[in-house]
Write a structure and sequence with these properties.
- The chain has about 450 residues and is of the alpha+beta class.
- Helices cover about 35% and strands about 25% of the residues.
- It has an eight-stranded antiparallel β-sheet with strand order 13-12-9-10-11-14-21-19, sandwiched between helices.
- About 50% of the residues are buried.
- The model has no long low-confidence stretch (mean pLDDT about 95).
């Protein structure tokens, strides 16, 4: 069993991991930047080590400093949380060389899923439904035109090494394709250092539905239901819920089976998420796999009663998965809202600054994951998310009402937040009726 874990992250996810470790009787090491010297995770861990300057490249992405912190504290394992180094296969291999356990999938699985063109080929071989498109990298404009003519417009040109909505361009005709190809390659090179792209059919107004999976070192893989992440603004998730409003038992079983196939195809171990697009006829298509814990993991925890972070740690420690597929039960309805320090009235501009006062909601079926407190100075260097508010109700209508009440109780003074934006979303008739897709928030103005 692992006795001491270093958390290579910050904010609420660092606190989340610390809590899980303490419940398991495991000591924790927090790492922090100079900008985070007063951060809560640095204060409550058993040990804390400053690993560099305020910028992520000097601290939370500083692999040498993180590994040195493991050495001086005697930490046997690293939990990466999400973001930063969580999907860096290179860092995983460095940890392996140093004899440090990585709490997550192995480097080979990351590589298999990290390159989207290769991932798609792997899924086709495994029998997982995929969107029609190129078999791999598109080499030139003529090849792109041939493929697009075969599958039909509109199409998407997508960066093979992409993520976060970068390196993606839509083309509705052959005339637009050449410009889309050049623009996607240029952006892909700028953000990922790799200009390789592929082409796939553009699914009109799909939903984004993801399936949580767990796998151990002994070949056991299960799924824990779905999360609907269709409420996105410019490819950034705003609100997540489970069950999906369009879900049926048959569709859940089919998507769950496909997610397990996807995990087995790359020898996946630990927690991960298989993401799908679902069209209006409930046909679903593999989009990508996230080889880490997700921001929205509390949604699944509230729905199933299963602590995903504890499961991550136990699996990494060599424990056999103690949950069988038939043990998984989804109950009620869960919604998570991301509370960000940003100004929706000014283009969602990040709003770092000092929190003068804060009151967080509570009550039956209400959970909040946050690392901010009164007097805390939100740094300008990191993501603007400052809290995740999660509620659980008997059904979707009760969960929506409960979330409205909880958001109405949440008071943060000193910085702008998106709380009113979230309340407007929850009052929207289309949302209430479940009429949402990934373009929904881009068509609405709740600011």
């Amino acid at each position: 069993m692992i006795d001491k874990i270093l958390i290579a992250n910050r904010g609420e996810i660092a606190l989340r991991v610390i809590r899980a470790c303490r419940e398991l009787g495991i000591e924790t090491v927090a790492v922090y930047s100079t900008a985070d010297k007063n951060a809560l995770h640095a204060q409550i861990a058993d040990q804390s080590v400053c690993i560099g300057g305020a910028r992520s490249s000097d601290s939370y992405l500083n692999t040498r400093a993180i590994l040195a912190a493991c050495e001086i504290t005697g930490a046997q394992a690293i939990h990466p949380g999400f973001g930063f180094l969580s999907e860096s296969s290179r860092f995983v291999r460095l940890c392996n060389k140093c004899g440090i356990k990585w709490i997550g999938p192995d480097a080979d699985a990351m590589d298999a899923m990290g390159d989207k063109a290769n991932a798609k080929a792997t899924m086709i071989k495994a029998g997982v439904p995929v969107v029609r498109g190129s078999d791999g990298i598109v080499e030139n404009v003529d090849e792109a035109k041939t493929i697009a003519a075969d599958i039909g417009y509109p199409v998407l040109v997508k960066a093979s090494a992409g993520g976060g909505g970068r390196g993606i361009r839509r083309a509705d005709s052959e005339q637009e394709l050449e410009k889309a190809l050049a623009a996607a390659k240029e952006e892909a090179l700028r953000f990922f250092g790799n200009d390789e792209v592929y082409i796939e059919k553009f699914i009109v107004d799909p939903r984004h539905v993801e399936v949580q999976i767990l796998g151990d070192e002994y070949g056991n893989v299960i799924h824990l239901g779905e999360r609907d992440c269709s409420c996105q603004r410019r490819n950034q998730k705003v609100l997540e819920e489970s069950p999906s409003p369009i879900m049926t038992p048959e569709l859940r079983a089919a998507m769950g089976e496909a997610a397990v196939k996807a995990a087995r195809a790359c020898g996946y171990k630990n927690a991960g998420t298989v993401e799908f697009l679902v069209d209006k006829d409930r046909n679903f298509y593999f989009m990508e796999m996230n080889a880490r814990i997700q921001v929205e993991h509390p949604v699944t925890e509230m729905e199933t009663g299963i602590d995903l972070v504890k499961q991550q740690i136990l699996i990494a420690g060599g424990m056999k998965l103690g949950i069988k597929q038939e043990d998984v039960r989804l109950t009620g309805h869960t919604i998570e809202c991301r509370v960000n320090a940003e100004d929706p009235k000014n283009g969602f501009r990040p709003c770092p600054g000092k929190i003068e006062s804060i009151h967080v909601p509570g009550g039956f079926g209400v959970r909040i994951d946050t690392a901010v407190y009164q007097g805390y100075e939100i740094p300008q260097y990191y993501d603007s998310m400052i809290a995740k508010l999660i509620v659980h109700g008997e059904d979707r209508a009760e969960a929506i009402t409960k979330m409205r009440v909880a958001l109405g109780e949440m008071l943060i003074e000193g910085v702008q937040t998106n709380i009113d934006y979230q309340l407007s979303l929850l009052r929207d008739e289309d949302f209430i009726n479940g009429n949402i897709d990934i373009g929904f928030l881009n068509r609405k103005d709740f600011s």
